[in-house]
Structure formats: structure tokens, C-alpha cells
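Field reference: sequence -> structure
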Amino acid sequence: MSMAQAASRTARHLPHPYEHDPRYLAADISPNIPVHLIERARARGICCDSWFSGLSLSHAQLNDPTLRVSYRQARTLVLRALDALREPALGLAIGRNETIGSFGLLGLAMMTSRTFGDAMRVGIENHRVCGSLLDVDFAVIDEHSVAVQTWPRFGEVELLPFLCEELFSSSLAIARELIGQSLTPIRMELTYPAPPYAEQYSALFQCEVRFGAPYNRILVDASWLAHPLPSYNPLTSRQASALCTQQLSARSHDGEIVGSVERLLRSRLREHPRLIEVARTLHLSERSLRRKLAESGRVFREIHDRVRAERAFELLRAQQLSVADIGSELGFSDPREFRRAFKRWTGISPQSARREARPVRDHVLPR
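Structure field:
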């Protein structure tokens, strides 16, 4: 039984730490992932009506292309699907069968981009259009390699294996559709432990796969970025990209500036960036950034603390790094400072958080 399935049984009985957060309940996510899971259940003759219990949502509503669901609703549907389908490597199976058409308007914007690098940029900037339950970013690793890097939203770790499998396998399928089967990643890194079916990762991605790593990312040779796309159409690409941006703006509850600050903080946690440094990177004055955050009802310290707390939970539950090393990853030079900060953020110690996470990781369902 897969880790994601085991976690789904345990996690559905646990309160979610963000269950009262307005962002967690905002209906702004396309239900693409639940739809894929429902189609798979239908193909196997599995009734999924019970998956919608208590969600103020019906199976029939998913046929409405304008429907948006909350993170809570999407997460609950995925957990129930994992329970019902009971398929190891389900995320890999779902993702590998996706095509550029599965991404709709975003797929069109990517397909008509000038180069593969442009397509990557458009896809990452607009990934939420397609209902992604993870946050995605682009990272330059060194002069020879770049990466698609992902972060769990709302501190999500129970579904992380499934969500990473779906995102990375679909990304690879679409990349190969755009530029050919010769594309092979350099390496794949994942924060969670190796599942029993780990060999399927190597078979699908055809590269080294490192589990228990500090990040969730897939690395490719930077030379692929300049690869021209045969379907390049500048007008279509601009039109499709503009429509994607409009959709994102219409759904945004936090505002663009909050997302920009969060992405920058995640990529530089070790450096412990200050407000003035973040402002300069975003080409703003410190006063302007403070004002823009205030207009969104947020303050820099609260955003910074939440991003650090989510990253700390992710690393603690991965069970791979010591508490001191996790503190270093978050920019703390003294482990005691990290322990005090973590307790201030969450109300519990890092050790307690790790102990509470262990049953989720180790729980095994009966066959």
C-alpha cells in the first residue's frame, strides 16, 4: 500500500491546522485533479458519490467548466479517492496520461510559446489555472541545470507523495510532448522517504531519484531552455497567456504581491531575508512593499513566519534531517532560537511535531 494511501486513512481523522483559514476555504481552485480521479474510479466501476459527503458539492457539478472548489474540498476528495482506489503509484499513473490538452488554455499558451524555456515560464507562472494543489517555482541550480521546484501549500504533507507524483509525471509528459522523447531529467529530488514502489519513479523519469532530499524538484539541463517549439505563434501565445493572467487575478484573494513575497521567501529561507532585501529584489521601496502588504491585510513578519513554519513541518515530517539542520535550512544559526520560534509559531516543540507525524508516515493499511 502506498504512503499516500496510508496517510489518507490517518489524515482524514485529524483536524487540519488551516481549517479556519479563509484562504483554505476560498473556492478558487479548478477541480482538475479530483476529475481525473473520478474518471479513473468510473473506469474501474467504483461509485464515488460518497466522496462528496459533507462538501456542499455534488458529482454533477464537476461537469460545470466554471466550477471552482476550495482547497479543503479538493483535499478531501483526493483523500477519499486514495482510500477507494487503493492503487500504489496512483499519482504517477494519473500524471503520465495527461497531455497538453489536459491543461486547457494554459496548454495552448505553452504550446504556442517561442521556446521550451518560455513554455516553462508560462506554465509555472500560471500553474494555479489548472487546479494545482502545490505551489510551483522555477530555480536556477547552477550554470548547467535548472529545476521545476514545488512546495506544499498550507503545510500539506499527508498528500505530498501523490501530489508530487501527479505534478512531476504530468510535467514530464507535457515537456516530452512539446520537444520530444529525448528529454531526460538530470535528477529528481523528493523530501519524503522512498515508497515501496520507488522503482516505478526510476522507470518513468529515467534518471536518478533521491528520496529524503531537502527539496521537491526535478532538474533538467539548462540547454533545453533555448529549444524552439514547432507550434510557436506569438499572437496566440500572448492572447492565451493574457487570459490565464485574467483568470488568476479574478481568483486571487491574497493579491499578487503576497504571492511574490511568499515565493521569494521560500527560495531564500537560509538567508533569513529582511523586508528591505525582499523589497529591493521586487524593485520596490521598503515603504511601498509595506503599504502593498497592508492593502492585502498582511504584514511581512506574519508571511515570513508562516512560510518558515510550513517548511519546518515539511522537513520534520520527512524524518530525514535533525532539528538543528532544519533550523539551519530556515536561517537559524542557533538551534535553540529555532526551537523557540517553532513553538511560538505552532504552540508545540519541533520534537513533538516530529513524533506526531511519525504514525502518519509509518502507518500501513491492511491488504
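Note: The longest helix spans residues 160-179.
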